[in-house]
Specification:
five-stranded mixed β-sheet; six-stranded antiparallel β-barrel; alpha+beta; 2 domains; YaeB-like fold; Elongation Factor Tu (Ef-tu), domain 3; 15% helix; 260 residues
């Protein structure tokens, strides 16, 4: 057989964010909770029986937002000084855009899998579910090729009270989860202007990270990233009534600037 056709059995419904930049590089770096909802009318309620006793599950999914196309060699975002063969990486840009992720299973309710700490976006198509079996799936002492030599950056990301309050307000009013975005973009890689939308600031080790139409101000040390503030990326004149609104979010930015 030269080709195969797969159909989703369900979708991630909440907790994963909407934009590729919000997805953690691996589930182990995630701090979220959400739901995978399987499709009705397929007998999946029965198929999920007995899964509730497992602490972790494998989700096999499709990278439906990777932009299409792939290259034989890619530059990983975690400290590798050179390009690597795509099959030696976890890049989403693959000949067949299929991914796997070991996530925490909280509970099973009918066709719903409540999961924790996962690296999938909302709406991700799920192709299959399998139990994680430690005796068969865990090999902690094996070699990991070039990754054993790479700089495995993982910094603790902290937030000022101002930044925490701003991120919570934006999320509560329908905006992106900027706290999660900061953890994803800043906690597992060193700042890299070639791969991130960074704006250097006059103070040492301070930058602005541009995430969509928002700006995240942060400072770095060897092991800690501290998010200092979150601001609108629009200039005041851009928020004037009647100005173009290509991302349909200027009303949110106006309210954010006027909030008490």
């Amino acid at each position: 057989m030269d080709s195969f056709t797969f159909e989703p059995i369900g979708f991630v419904k909440s907790g994963g964010g909407s934009y590729p930049q919000e997805a953690p590089r691996q589930a182990v770096f995630a701090q979220n909770e959400g739901v995978v909802e399987l499709l009705p009318g397929r007998g999946f309620e029965q198929a999920l029986e007995d899964l509730g006793g497992f602490d972790r599950i494998w989700l096999i999914f499709a990278f439906d937002r990777n932009g299409g196309g792939w290259k034989p060699k890619v530059r990983p975002p975690d400290g590798s000084p050179c390009k690597r063969g795509v099959f030696a990486t976890r890049s989403p840009h693959r000949p067949n855009p299929i991914g796997i992720s070991a996530v925490e299973l909280v509970r099973v309710e009918g066709r719903k899998l409540h999961i924790r700490n996962f690296d999938l976006l909302d709406g991700t198509p799920i192709l299959d579910v399998k139990p994680y079996v430690p005796a068969a799936d865990a090999f902690p002492d094996v070699h990991a090729g070039w990754r054993d030599e790479a700089d495995q950056t993982r910094r603790n990301v902290t937030f000022s009270r101002e930044a925490t309050v701003a991120a919570a307000w934006i999320r509560a009013h329908g905006g992106p989860d900027l706290e999660n975005a900061a953890r994803v973009q800043l906690g597992t890689r060193r700042p890299d202007a070639k791969r991130q939308r960074l704006i250097p600031l006059p103070q040492p080790n301070r930058h602005l990270l541009a995430f969509r139409t928002w700006r995240i101000e942060f400072e770095t040390t060897e092991e800690i990233v501290r998010v200092l503030a979150i601001a609108s990326g629009y200039m005041p004149e851009e928020l004037a009534e009647g100005m173009p609104d290509p991302y349909a979010d200027k009303e949110l930015h106006r309210a954010f600037r006027l909030r008490g």
